[in-house]
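can u do me a favor
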């Protein structure tokens, strides 16, 4: 019996070693992108690198940032992908140099040098006033084309906006108006707007969902999600305020502990030089590259972008969110 116990223990230890060895050989990508985009990335990585074990793990933005910050060099992640700009900018000291790994001709404001070559910009995700024409017509309402229009009592309980405390989309609307109006005037504006808001949604996709359900007429939404629904036949229309389309960015980088691992660099190279083009063509087309061509049906072109100065400043974001009371 004792010999059997010893044998079983030895087998268990051996299996544990094998599992741990397999895990250590796996390249881990923490991705904060939507699951359908992660699924496509996993599919293409598997096809491109049949000799490697690569795992794309959906990891929500705040969780990914906190985990890497706490674990530091001990994190199991090799690549941090599509992490919101404020968070990834806060992790720069834990990320490796990507200057020799990117060949994308970025717009000047998105050049990796602006971020000390610790990460590349993965996407710009932007916002727009999205309206459900059927609901506007039902209530005999005009299309609002300015932030001031949204304060009109006729839109009471017919507007949805993402909550800046839980949504990067909500925050970029908030930050843009702070930049344009000044802090106090922006806070006073949102005090007035809240009267007309049916729901401050937890996620950035919330307003589009409510528009689709016919629960609101106007959503402060993400443009690429609105276009996606339009292309499915939903009666949505997109408008931009005169202040321009507010936006934020996300970034992708290599965790410093893995920056010299050959296979990790191979995967990163594919991600930020090849797959990025597929992603911009099919999922998130906002302009980040020179000579970028938008091919998605019904996607707005020649968009004027809003003043988003300081959107990457995490300390300022936390300060502004401490003033948000809804």
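np, heres the sequence
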């Amino acid at each position: 019996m004792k010999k059997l116990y010893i044998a079983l223990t030895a087998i268990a230890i051996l299996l544990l070693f094998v599992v741990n060895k397999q895990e250590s050989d796996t390249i881990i990508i923490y991705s904060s992108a939507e699951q359908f985009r992660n699924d496509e990335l996993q599919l293409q990585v598997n096809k491109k690198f049949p000799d490697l074990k690569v795992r794309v793990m959906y990891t929500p933005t705040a969780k990914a940032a906190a985990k890497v910050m706490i674990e530091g060099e001990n994190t199991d992640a090799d690549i941090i992908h599509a992490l919101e700009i404020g968070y990834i900018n806060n992790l720069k000291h834990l990320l490796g140099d990507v200057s020799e790994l990117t060949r994308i001709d970025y717009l000047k404001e998105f050049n990796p040098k602006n971020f000390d070559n610790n990460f590349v910009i993965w996407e710009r995700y932007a916002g727009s006033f999205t309206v459900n024409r059927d609901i506007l017509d039902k209530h005999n309402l005009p299309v609002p084309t300015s932030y001031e229009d949204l304060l009109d009592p006729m839109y009471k309980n017919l507007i949805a906006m993402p909550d800046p405390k839980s949504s990067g989309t909500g925050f970029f609307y908030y930050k843009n108006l702070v930049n344009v109006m000044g802090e106090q005037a922006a806070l006073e504006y949102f005090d007035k707007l809240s009267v007309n808001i049916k729901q401050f949604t937890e996620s950035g996709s919330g307003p589009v969902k409510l528009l689709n359900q016919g629960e609101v007429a106007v959503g402060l939404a993400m443009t690429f999600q609105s276009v996606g629904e339009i292309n499915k036949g939903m009666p949505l229309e997109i408008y931009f305020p005169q202040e321009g389309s507010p936006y934020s960015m996300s970034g992708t980088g290599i965790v410093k502990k893995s920056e010299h691992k050959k296979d990790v660099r191979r995967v990163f190279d594919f991600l930020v030089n090849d797959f990025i083009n597929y992603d911009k063509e099919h999922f998130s087309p906002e302009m980040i590259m020179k000579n970028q061509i938008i091919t998605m049906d019904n996607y707005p072109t020649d968009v004027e972008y809003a003043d988003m100065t300081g959107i990457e400043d995490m300390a300022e974001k936390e300060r502004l969110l401490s003033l948000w009371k809804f």
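The chain has eleven helices and nine strands. hope that helps!!
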